[in-house]
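Changelog-adjacent note: as of this version, every example in the card shows the full chain rather than a window. The one below runs 252 residues end to end.
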Amino acid sequence: MKIIPLSEGSFTVDQTKKFIPYNPEKGMLQERPKGSLLVEIQPFLIVTTQDIILLDTGLGFSQDGVLQLYNNLAKHGISSSDVTKVIMSHLHRDHAGGLSVADPFSGLHYLAFPQADHYIQSKELDYALSGLSSSYDSSKLSFLANHDKVHLLDDRGDIDNYIFFELSGGHSPFHQVIKIVEGDQILFFGGDEAPQLQQMKTKFIAKYDFDGKRAMELRQQWWDIGIAEAWTFLFYHDIMVPYFTMKGESNE
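Full-length structure tokens:
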């Protein structure tokens, strides 16, 4: 399998949940808003023998009227129509912003990857549309509910016998994680429950998680299994390490 990180850049984010672009060459870390986090926004493209898979879709920023995600794909010779599957860990704004684009005249939203089959946790979509959390933009997601290219997933299962999903419920109530297995490669995408390499090595409860204790325990479980099975972890929010392959030896 080929892994292509599609970085949209580094951002600071605080309790306002606004993502502010951060240029490390111009800014100073100590000048970030108090209590803010420095994160990368990094969807992943995974090329397998049978699919071109997009894992999460970034913030949805545009450059000169073109979705930044399209430009990032084009740098690797890939168009939006080449993507065969879009699989979402969850639907928070920083992960689902590039899931749709708006018609400039009607304002209606449609899939940014219209040729691809989309896989979304059914309970996550219901929760995103409920209006109970400001972390979602329901105006950009409502059209997904009855779309013929959207497949709503149950708590756990597989897609085409090599992509496995499981409801994890740590970061958001209905967050899911994805594992892709092809040959002797195992890729693991933990979304915001395994967002950075350092977080996998540190035992802590994050205040921004729906169930911080559960997320902490899951990280420890995945890390231990990853060591034993030589997983490659994909880190959506890591500014230094997009992905990391375990060697089956130690967690140092």
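Structural remarks: The mean pLDDT is 91.
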